Amino acid sequence: MSDTALLPATSTDLEKAIVGASGLSGLNPEIIATLWNPNTCPATALPWFAWGLSVDEWDANWDEATQRRVIAASIDIHRHKGTVAAVRRALTALGHTGHLIEWWQQSPPGQPHTFLADVEVDSRGIDIATQIEIERQIIAVKPVRSHFAMRLISSSYCGARIANAVLTGEDITVLPYTIEEADAPAPSLHIGIGVQAWGTATIYPQGT
User: Which tens digits make up the pLDDT trace of 83-92?
Assistant: First the structure.
């Protein structure tokens, strides 16, 4: 497909020159259908997508998943801009969880038109750049008249694995059968006596 294939027949030389200079050679028209979807838009076009939706805060250093979340949340944030819901949605798009406590919810009540923003940064840690980024995001969507104080809450979670094993056994020794006690009837006594006697006699003739 040539660079000017998508131009109408009445296009001017200037329009043709712009197309030629924009480097759109080889562009598949089917890609156009994916450009306005934050899940399918090519990664290289995400900054322009964000610009087209008037995303208030954008950082080219964000990872691709964060960029897509921010773009996907942009329309809903603009619809509810200036509300607590918009601030929470903006923080969620950055991957943080925010809890907002308005002045009348505090004990004792705070100054009117102020709120406290508790932002959980999980176990990712926090640095100055991240803190400034969160503050800018809140400022961009909060009510203009409101002032806020921010607390950053870092928490980490670890899993504990507990194993328990119970081993039980019995040691059995088999010995030959031994009679330890026996009952027997009284023994009967039989006595026998035998007497044997003998003698020797010698007989001689008379007169000898």
Answer: 988 999 999 9
